[in-house]
Design goal:
Layout: E1 10-17, H1 23-29, E2 38-40, H2 41-51, H3 54-64, H4 71-82, E3 91-94, H5 100-109, E4 115-123, H6 126-134, E5 136-138, E6 145-147, H7 174-197, E7 202-206, H8 212-225
Parallel strand pairs: 1-3, 1-4, 2-3, 4-7
Antiparallel strand pairs: 5-6
Helix pairs in contact: 2-3, 4-5, 6-7
The structure holds zinc ion.
Zinc ion binds next to loops.
């Protein structure tokens, strides 16, 4: 890249995490050390679909036909979003990039907007995710969710509110969860490797064994240690302990 003045660029934090890793929670909590907006391509597409504009209509047609929204359209959405002034101090990207092509386009557009990329990969042991999600039960009558471990019903298998027999949702069956985790790996591993090859810092951060706030401190501490965010904004730093209960990740 020649003479490197990118150290003065604001951070573009690219957030990865499997289903059940707590990624959505962290995307919001990271405001603690990053002042820029949380950019979720999924949310952006839903907004366009809701507003029934040209992009929304195109996306809706594809999704209804069971097709993926093409890279080009998603790239355009992100490119347009990065032009906003509120991105000057940095951004958190969530759900993007999902393909190698998107990653490639992103790496070319970030310097144009004086942003420099870093990947945060929230890592949680899959057996823990399966144990937590497969321990959920739902009332088919009122919809209340229970967790066998952290929030069990008063009488096993029975809804506290209306006495209905609790069921396991299809999405919470172990085989379904394992399949989703496998799909995540198949999609994500090549993109992480692509970033590593492109010399983008990739931080693997444990998303387990602590409260969401402590995990946020881990992430912010790591980013501060790498000079990506001001260290002043992270009270507690990277050394958050693992002492807290493991039940609070979401
Ligand atoms: Zn109920």
């Amino acid at each position: 890249m020649g003479a490197d003045n990118t150290h003065s660029f604001a951070p573009a934090i690219i957030l990865f995490g499997s289903p059940g890793s707590g990624k959505g929670t962290q995307a919001k909590l990271l405001r603690h050390c990053l002042s820029g907006p949380h950019i979720s391509t999924g949310d952006m597409l839903r907004t366009h679909i809701g507003e029934r504009d040209e992009i929304g209509a195109q996306a809706e047609r594809l999704i209804k036909a069971g097709k993926l929204v093409p890279d080009e359209l998603v790239n355009q959405l992100v490119e347009r979003r990065l032009k906003s002034r509120d991105c000057d101090s940095g951004v958190i990207l969530d759900g993007y990039p999902r393909t190698r092509n998107q990653a490639d386009v992103l790496l070319r557009m970030l310097p144009v907007h004086q942003l420099r990329p870093a990947v945060v990969h929230l890592v949680v042991d899959y057996d823990r995710i399966v144990a937590r999600l497969s321990g959920r039960r739902q009332c088919p009558v009122c919809g209340t969710l229970y967790s066998l471990k952290t929030n069990p019903p008063k009488v096993a298998g029975i809804c506290d509110l209306d006495g209905a027999k609790l069921v396991t949702r299809e999405d919470d069956r172990e085989s379904v969860i394992r399949e989703r985790l496998h799909e995540y790996d198949v999609q994500t591993v090549p993109i992480l490797n692509y970033f590593r090859e492109a010399k983008v810092p990739v931080f693997e951060i444990s998303g387990a064994g602590a409260s969401p706030e402590q995990i946020m401190q881990r992430i912010c501490g790591t980013l501060a240690d790498s000079g990506l965010v001001d260290s002043g904004s992270t009270s507690g730093g990277a050394a958050a302990t693992d002492a807290a209960s493991e039940t609070s990740f979401s």
